[in-house]
Amino acid sequence: MEKLTGILPVAPTPFHADGRVDEEGTRRVMDCMIDQGVDAICILANYSEQFLLSDEERALVMRHSLEQVAGRVPVIVTVSHFSTDVVVARAKAAEAMGASMLMMMPPYHGVGLVPAPDGIFEHFQAVSDAVNIPIMVQDAPLSGVSLPVLVLVKMAQDIENVSYFKIETPFAADKLAALIEAGGDHIVGPFDGEEAVTLLADLDAGCTGTMTSALQPEKIRPIVTEYLAGNHDAALDQWKLCLPLINHENRQCGLRAAKTVMMEGGVIGSDFVRHPLKPLSARTKERLISLSQELDLIALKWGK
After folding, report:
1. Which residues does residue 43 pair with via DSSP β-bridges, in sequence order?
2. Domain total for the chain?
3. CB neighbour list of residue 65: distance below 8 Å, 6 or more residues apart
4. Are the C-beta atoms of 263 and 28 separated by less than 8 Å?
5. Structural domain containing residue 135
6. Was 211 annotated as part of a binding site?
7. pLDDT, one tens digit for every residue, the chain (304 residues)
8. Which of the residues 92, 166, 240, 304 is marked catalytic?
9. Are 154 and 138 contacting, i.e. CB atoms less than 8 angstroms apart?
């Protein structure tokens, strides 16, 4: 696989209004995201509601997604789990089905059940030993696990397939800069997340891409491409254009934003989220649609 840069958005998992996985909707989401001009698609991540899917549903979503994409763009499969054995099994299955990359968080099960640093390292090592595709380390506050820069650098240097990093911790730009400086060529893909709310600072720090939701990748991707081409003013102007919607998604909507806009645009039939998550309030949804209309998003019109 060629080095990935640009935008690698997370695909939502669509459900029918009764909560069942929408298999046809999953395939339509893949096609819509490709039409959004993404550089890769990440599935089964936190913004895919992976923590609300059964093992059987995970396998179903993975199969439909990879079959529908059919090699048109790389697909990153998230395999996070506390159990090393489960993660290894998920990783092998993803590679066998055609995944181009894996993403995984460090093992955690609440703040009181976090392995020692050696256990975390061995967790990633076991997956790397089992596959021959790159691994992206997701360093996110959700886990509650501290991954200092020196630990990440050691992973990049000593674990063969660990070469991509999604940094979405507080002060991500400083951590990205330190990681890139200390890790050198071992840091193949430094990425940020958080719906690109800190993207300009993170690009200044040296990141080469972002993993957002599937809401507006066609609008956010030019921020990265312009910046990497040296057109920093153009990148800033584009970021300013996207920022109101980025902020609304990040602070008010979360993973529900992409599903709601895709439903409005006919990509999927329902924006259902599984309990204990709750649907957007009418007030929040109205602002989301209004901001999306101002940007004339692809997802808002794709199925109409």
Report:
1. 77
2. 1
3. 11, 26, 27, 30, 41, 43, 75
4. no
5. 6-300
6. yes
7. 789 999 999 999 999 999 999 999 999 999 999 999 999 999 999 999 999 999 999 999 999 999 999 999 999 999 999 999 999 999 999 999 999 999 999 998 877 788 888 999 999 999 999 999 999 999 998 888 889 999 999 999 999 999 999 999 999 999 999 999 999 999 999 999 999 999 999 999 999 999 999 999 999 999 999 999 999 999 999 999 999 999 999 999 999 999 999 999 999 999 999 999 999 999 999 999 999 999 999 999 999 8
8. 166
9. no
Is residue 98 one of the residues assigned to a domain?
A: yes
Coil/strand/helix, residue 165: strand
- Distance from C-alpha of 97 to C-alpha of 63, rounded to nearest angstrom: 7
Is 301 known to be catalytic?
no
Residue 231 lies in a domain: yes
Could you tell me which of 200, 228, 254 has the C-alpha nearest to residue 49? 254
Q: Which residues contact 270 (CB under 8 A, 6 or more apart)?
A: 14, 15, 16, 17, 22, 25, 263
DSSP-derived pairing of the beta strands 41-43 and 6-7: unpaired
Residue with tokens 């840069």: 5
DSSP string, 250-265: IIIITTHHHHHHHHHT
* Domain membership flag for residue 186: yes
